[in-house]
Protein backbone atom coordinates (compact mmCIF):
# COMPACT_ATOMS: atom_id res chain seq x y z
CA UNK A 1 0.00 0.00 0.00
CA UNK A 2 1.23 3.46 -0.85
CA UNK A 3 2.15 5.25 2.41
CA UNK A 4 1.58 8.65 0.80
CA UNK A 5 -2.14 7.96 0.49
CA UNK A 6 -2.42 7.39 4.26
CA UNK A 7 -0.34 10.27 5.60
CA UNK A 8 -1.04 13.98 6.00
CA UNK A 9 1.08 16.28 3.83
CA UNK A 10 3.21 18.81 5.70
CA UNK A 11 1.88 21.83 3.84
CA UNK A 12 -1.87 21.74 4.47
CA UNK A 13 -3.58 25.08 3.70
CA UNK A 14 -4.95 27.36 6.44
CA UNK A 15 -8.18 26.21 8.03
CA UNK A 16 -7.51 22.49 7.67
CA UNK A 17 -7.75 19.79 10.34
CA UNK A 18 -4.07 20.14 11.16
CA UNK A 19 -4.42 23.84 11.98
CA UNK A 20 -7.57 23.29 14.03
CA UNK A 21 -5.84 20.59 16.04
CA UNK A 22 -2.90 22.91 16.67
CA UNK A 23 -5.20 25.71 17.84
CA UNK A 24 -6.96 23.32 20.22
CA UNK A 25 -3.63 22.30 21.72
CA UNK A 26 -2.73 25.96 22.24
CA UNK A 27 -5.87 26.78 24.26
CA UNK A 28 -4.81 27.97 27.70
CA UNK A 29 -6.55 25.87 30.38
CA UNK A 30 -8.67 27.89 32.79
CA UNK A 31 -8.86 27.38 36.55
CA UNK A 32 -10.89 29.09 39.24
CA UNK A 33 -9.60 29.01 42.81
CA UNK A 34 -12.12 29.70 45.56
CA UNK A 35 -10.61 31.61 48.46
CA UNK A 36 -7.45 33.71 48.76
CA UNK A 37 -6.02 32.30 51.96
CA UNK A 38 -2.41 31.21 51.79
CA UNK A 39 -3.37 27.78 50.43
CA UNK A 40 -5.54 29.26 47.69
CA UNK A 41 -2.88 31.82 46.77
CA UNK A 42 -0.16 29.17 46.69
CA UNK A 43 -2.32 26.97 44.44
CA UNK A 44 -3.06 29.92 42.16
CA UNK A 45 0.63 30.89 42.01
CA UNK A 46 1.74 27.37 41.08
CA UNK A 47 -0.98 27.02 38.46
CA UNK A 48 -0.18 30.42 36.99
CA UNK A 49 3.49 29.52 36.71
CA UNK A 50 2.39 26.31 34.95
CA UNK A 51 0.70 28.45 32.25
CA UNK A 52 -2.86 28.07 33.51
CA UNK A 53 -5.26 31.00 33.29
CA UNK A 54 -6.19 31.49 36.95
CA UNK A 55 -8.93 33.53 38.56
CA UNK A 56 -9.17 33.73 42.36
CA UNK A 57 -12.57 34.47 43.87
CA UNK A 58 -12.51 35.92 47.40
CA UNK A 59 -15.63 36.76 49.41
CA UNK A 60 -13.87 39.23 51.71
CA UNK A 61 -12.53 42.67 50.87
CA UNK A 62 -8.96 41.52 51.45
CA UNK A 63 -6.70 38.56 50.73
CA UNK A 64 -4.96 36.30 53.22
CA UNK A 65 -7.80 34.44 54.91
CA UNK A 66 -6.95 34.04 58.58
CA UNK A 67 -3.57 35.61 57.91
CA UNK A 68 -4.21 39.31 58.50
CA UNK A 69 -1.65 41.89 59.62
CA UNK A 70 -2.99 44.97 61.40
CA UNK A 71 -1.04 48.26 61.39
CA UNK A 72 -3.43 50.42 63.42
CA UNK A 73 -0.93 50.73 66.31
CA UNK A 74 1.85 51.87 63.99
CA UNK A 75 3.51 48.46 63.93
CA UNK A 76 2.61 45.11 62.34
CA UNK A 77 0.44 42.87 64.51
CA UNK A 78 -0.79 39.57 63.06
CA UNK A 79 -4.41 39.05 64.06
CA UNK A 80 -4.38 35.43 62.93
CA UNK A 81 -1.45 33.23 61.95
CA UNK A 82 1.77 34.79 63.23
CA UNK A 83 4.34 32.00 63.64
CA UNK A 84 6.48 30.15 61.15
CA UNK A 85 6.53 26.50 62.20
CA UNK A 86 9.78 24.95 61.04
CA UNK A 87 12.44 27.66 60.86
CA UNK A 88 14.65 25.91 58.32
CA UNK A 89 15.32 25.62 54.60
CA UNK A 90 12.83 22.73 54.51
CA UNK A 91 10.00 25.22 54.89
CA UNK A 92 8.50 26.16 51.49
CA UNK A 93 8.19 29.77 52.68
CA UNK A 94 11.93 30.01 53.41
CA UNK A 95 12.93 31.35 49.95
CA UNK A 96 10.32 34.13 50.12
CA UNK A 97 11.23 35.12 53.69
CA UNK A 98 14.92 35.17 52.82
CA UNK A 99 14.37 37.17 49.62
CA UNK A 100 12.28 39.76 51.47
CA UNK A 101 14.79 39.96 54.32
CA UNK A 102 12.12 39.38 56.97
CA UNK A 103 13.08 38.95 60.61
CA UNK A 104 12.10 35.89 62.68
CA UNK A 105 12.11 35.77 66.48
CA UNK A 106 12.58 32.19 67.61
CA UNK A 107 10.12 31.41 70.40
CA UNK A 108 10.65 27.69 70.94
CA UNK A 109 12.54 24.68 69.68
CA UNK A 110 11.64 21.39 68.06
CA UNK A 111 10.20 19.94 71.29
CA UNK A 112 7.31 22.40 71.28
CA UNK A 113 4.53 20.83 69.24
CA UNK A 114 0.83 21.15 70.09
CA UNK A 115 0.90 20.65 73.86
CA UNK A 116 4.53 19.92 74.72
CA UNK A 117 5.70 23.25 76.12
CA UNK A 118 8.08 24.33 78.85
CA UNK A 119 5.78 24.87 81.84
CA UNK A 120 8.54 26.70 83.70
CA UNK A 121 8.31 29.62 81.25
CA UNK A 122 4.70 30.49 82.08
CA UNK A 123 1.90 29.80 84.55
CA UNK A 124 -1.80 29.01 84.30
CA UNK A 125 -4.31 30.86 86.45
CA UNK A 126 -7.95 30.16 87.30
CA UNK A 127 -10.84 32.59 86.91
CA UNK A 128 -10.08 34.10 90.32
CA UNK A 129 -6.42 34.83 89.54
CA UNK A 130 -5.03 31.90 91.51
CA UNK A 131 -2.08 30.08 90.00
CA UNK A 132 -2.76 26.46 89.10
CA UNK A 133 -0.09 24.08 90.44
CA UNK A 134 2.32 23.11 87.62
CA UNK A 135 2.14 19.50 88.80
CA UNK A 136 -1.60 19.45 88.01
CA UNK A 137 -1.01 20.98 84.58
CA UNK A 138 1.61 18.32 83.80
CA UNK A 139 -0.63 15.50 85.09
CA UNK A 140 -3.60 16.61 82.98
CA UNK A 141 -1.29 17.09 79.99
CA UNK A 142 -0.22 13.46 80.27
CA UNK A 143 -3.87 12.43 80.43
CA UNK A 144 -4.62 14.50 77.32
CA UNK A 145 -1.81 12.77 75.43
CA UNK A 146 -3.26 9.42 76.47
CA UNK A 147 -6.73 10.48 75.30
CA UNK A 148 -5.38 11.45 71.87
CA UNK A 149 -3.52 8.13 71.64
CA UNK A 150 -6.76 6.29 72.39
CA UNK A 151 -8.58 8.19 69.64
CA UNK A 152 -6.26 6.48 67.15
CA UNK A 153 -7.98 3.20 68.03
CA UNK A 154 -11.36 4.78 67.40
CA UNK A 155 -10.50 5.95 63.90
CA UNK A 156 -8.94 2.57 63.05
CA UNK A 157 -12.20 0.86 64.03
CA UNK A 158 -14.49 2.96 61.83
CA UNK A 159 -14.56 3.53 58.10
CA UNK A 160 -16.41 6.82 58.40
CA UNK A 161 -14.82 9.96 59.74
CA UNK A 162 -15.99 11.80 62.85
CA UNK A 163 -14.94 14.88 64.76
CA UNK A 164 -12.10 14.94 67.28
CA UNK A 165 -14.60 15.94 69.95
CA UNK A 166 -16.76 12.90 69.22
CA UNK A 167 -13.69 10.66 69.31
CA UNK A 168 -12.64 12.09 72.68
CA UNK A 169 -16.16 11.50 74.02
CA UNK A 170 -16.00 7.83 73.00
CA UNK A 171 -12.56 7.46 74.60
CA UNK A 172 -13.80 8.91 77.90
CA UNK A 173 -16.80 6.58 77.86
CA UNK A 174 -14.48 3.61 77.42
CA UNK A 175 -11.81 4.88 79.82
CA UNK A 176 -13.57 6.65 82.73
CA UNK A 177 -10.25 6.89 84.59
CA UNK A 178 -9.21 9.54 82.04
CA UNK A 179 -12.11 11.80 82.99
CA UNK A 180 -11.12 14.93 84.89
CA UNK A 181 -13.03 16.73 87.62
CA UNK A 182 -12.91 20.20 89.13
CA UNK A 183 -9.85 22.27 88.24
CA UNK A 184 -8.34 19.31 86.37
CA UNK A 185 -11.33 19.42 84.02
CA UNK A 186 -10.71 23.14 83.38
CA UNK A 187 -7.06 22.42 82.58
CA UNK A 188 -8.13 19.65 80.19
CA UNK A 189 -10.35 22.17 78.40
CA UNK A 190 -7.33 24.47 78.14
CA UNK A 191 -5.35 21.73 76.39
CA UNK A 192 -8.26 21.13 74.03
CA UNK A 193 -8.49 24.86 73.31
CA UNK A 194 -4.79 24.93 72.46
CA UNK A 195 -5.38 22.12 69.99
CA UNK A 196 -8.30 24.02 68.46
CA UNK A 197 -6.12 27.10 68.09
CA UNK A 198 -3.78 25.20 65.77
CA UNK A 199 -6.68 24.53 63.41
CA UNK A 200 -8.62 27.80 63.98
CA UNK A 201 -11.79 25.78 64.40
CA UNK A 202 -13.71 24.08 67.22
CA UNK A 203 -12.99 20.44 68.05
CA UNK A 204 -16.42 19.37 66.79
CA UNK A 205 -15.29 20.42 63.29
CA UNK A 206 -11.79 18.90 63.30
CA UNK A 207 -11.46 15.61 61.40
CA UNK A 208 -10.44 12.70 63.61
CA UNK A 209 -8.90 10.86 60.66
CA UNK A 210 -6.89 13.81 59.36
CA UNK A 211 -6.04 16.09 62.30
CA UNK A 212 -2.50 14.75 62.75
CA UNK A 213 -1.60 14.31 59.07
CA UNK A 214 0.71 17.27 59.03
CA UNK A 215 4.44 17.33 58.45
CA UNK A 216 6.54 18.67 61.31
CA UNK A 217 9.57 20.52 60.00
CA UNK A 218 12.77 20.98 61.97
CA UNK A 219 14.01 24.32 63.25
CA UNK A 220 11.47 25.12 65.93
CA UNK A 221 9.05 28.03 65.77
CA UNK A 222 9.60 31.68 64.96
CA UNK A 223 7.44 34.78 65.23
CA UNK A 224 7.11 36.84 62.05
CA UNK A 225 8.34 40.20 63.38
CA UNK A 226 7.19 42.21 60.34
CA UNK A 227 4.01 40.17 60.10
CA UNK A 228 2.85 37.78 57.39
CA UNK A 229 1.47 40.43 55.03
CA UNK A 230 4.72 40.83 53.01
CA UNK A 231 4.64 37.07 52.32
CA UNK A 232 1.00 37.16 51.28
CA UNK A 233 1.57 40.15 48.99
CA UNK A 234 4.50 38.41 47.31
CA UNK A 235 2.56 35.20 46.62
CA UNK A 236 -0.44 37.16 45.32
CA UNK A 237 1.55 39.51 43.06
CA UNK A 238 0.06 39.83 39.53
CA UNK A 239 -2.62 37.20 40.18
CA UNK A 240 -6.18 37.89 38.97
CA UNK A 241 -7.96 38.16 42.33
CA UNK A 242 -11.59 39.27 42.55
CA UNK A 243 -12.41 40.61 46.02
CA UNK A 244 -16.01 40.76 47.36
CA UNK A 245 -16.93 37.83 45.11
CA UNK A 246 -18.61 35.23 47.25
CA UNK A 247 -19.29 31.88 45.58
CA UNK A 248 -22.83 30.91 46.51
CA UNK A 249 -23.17 27.69 44.54
CA UNK A 250 -21.11 25.09 42.68
CA UNK A 251 -23.05 23.06 40.12
CA UNK A 252 -21.80 20.10 38.11
CA UNK A 253 -23.78 19.76 34.89
CA UNK A 254 -24.42 16.68 32.77
CA UNK A 255 -22.13 17.88 29.96
CA UNK A 256 -19.01 17.58 32.12
CA UNK A 257 -19.03 21.24 33.12
CA UNK A 258 -18.79 22.99 36.46
CA UNK A 259 -20.64 26.24 37.05
CA UNK A 260 -19.77 28.64 39.86
CA UNK A 261 -22.36 31.17 40.90
CA UNK A 262 -20.69 34.05 42.70
CA UNK A 263 -22.15 37.38 43.66
CA UNK A 264 -21.06 40.54 41.80
CA UNK A 265 -19.88 38.82 38.60
CA UNK A 266 -21.27 36.60 35.87
CA UNK A 267 -21.47 32.84 36.18
CA UNK A 268 -18.17 31.12 35.39
CA UNK A 269 -18.07 27.84 33.53
CA UNK A 270 -15.17 25.45 32.99
CA UNK A 271 -14.56 21.75 32.49
CA UNK A 272 -14.39 19.43 35.48
CA UNK A 273 -10.75 18.52 34.92
CA UNK A 274 -9.85 22.22 34.85
CA UNK A 275 -11.75 23.00 38.05
CA UNK A 276 -9.91 23.51 41.32
CA UNK A 277 -12.06 23.95 44.39
CA UNK A 278 -10.10 25.18 47.36
CA UNK A 279 -12.07 25.03 50.61
CA UNK A 280 -11.22 27.76 53.13
CA UNK A 281 -10.29 26.53 56.90
CA UNK A 282 -8.04 27.53 58.60
Give the SSE string: HEHEEEEHEHHHEHEEEE
What is the CA–CA distance across the termini? 65 Å
Low-confidence runs: 270-282
How is the CATH topology of the largest domain named? Answer: FAD/NAD(P)-binding domain
- The radius of gyration over CA amounts to 26 Å
Helix content: 25-40%
Largest sheet: 3 strands, parallel
Structural class by helix and strand composition: alpha+beta
Basic shape: globular
CATH class of the largest domain: Alpha Beta
Question: What's the mean pLDDT score?
Answer: 83
Counting DSSP H or I runs of 4 or more residues, the number of helices is: 7
Q: Strand-residue fraction?
A: 15-25%
Tell me the count of domains. Answer: 2
Q: State the strand order across the main sheet.
A: 1-2-8
CATH homology group of the largest domain: FAD/NAD(P)-binding domain
List the helices and strands and how they pair.
Blueprint: H1 17-25, E1 30-34, H2 38-49, E2 53-57, E3 69-70, E4 77-78, E5 83-85, H3 94-100, E6 104-108, H4 134-157, H5 164-174, H6 183-199, E7 221-224, H7 229-236, E8 240-242, E9 247-252, E10 257-262, E11 268-271
Helix pairs in contact: 4-5, 4-6
Structure description:
The termini are far apart. The chain has helices at 17-25, 38-49, 94-100, 134-157, 164-174, 183-199, 229-236; strands at residues 30-34, 53-57, 69-70, 77-78, 83-85, 104-108, 221-224, 240-242, 247-252, 257-262, 268-271. It is built from seven helices and eleven strands. It has two domains: 29-82 and 229-282, FAD/NAD(P)-binding domain (3-Layer(bba) Sandwich), CATH 3.50.50; 114-215, no CATH class. The strands form four sheets. The protein has a three-stranded parallel beta sheet, with helices on one face. The chain has a three-stranded antiparallel beta sheet with strand order 5-7-6, with no helix packed on it. It has a three-stranded antiparallel beta sheet with strand order 9-10-11, with no helix packed on it.
Amino acid sequence: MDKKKNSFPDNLPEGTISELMQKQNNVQPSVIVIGSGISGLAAARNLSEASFKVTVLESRDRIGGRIHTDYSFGCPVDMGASWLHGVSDENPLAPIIRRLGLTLYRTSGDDSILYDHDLESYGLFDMHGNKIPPQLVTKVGDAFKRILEETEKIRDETANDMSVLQGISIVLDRNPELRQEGMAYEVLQWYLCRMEAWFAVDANLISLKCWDQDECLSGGHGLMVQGYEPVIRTIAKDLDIRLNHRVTKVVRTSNNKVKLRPTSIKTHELSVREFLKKQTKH
